[in-house]
Amino acid sequence: MDRFYFDHNATTPVSAEVLDVVIQALRDDYGNASSIHHYGQRAKQVLERSRRQVADLLGCEPREIVFVSGGTEADNLAIFGIARRAPERRRHVITTAIEHPAVLNACAQLEREGVEITYLRVDMSGVVDPDDVRSALRPYTVLISVMHANNELGTIQPLEEIARIAKEAGVVMHSDGVQAVGGISVNVRMLGVDLYSMSGHKIYAPKGVGALYVREGTDLLPLLFGGRHERGLRPGTENVPAFAGLGAAADWLRRNLTTYVAAVQRLRDGMEQGILARVPQAFVNGSSARRLPNTSNVRFEGIEGEAAVIALDLMGFAVSSGAACSSGAVEPSHVLTAIGLSPAQARSSVRFSLGRSNTQQQVDALVGAVEKTVARLRALSPVYPDNA
Question: Is the pTM of this model over 0.90?
Answer without folding.
Answer: yes
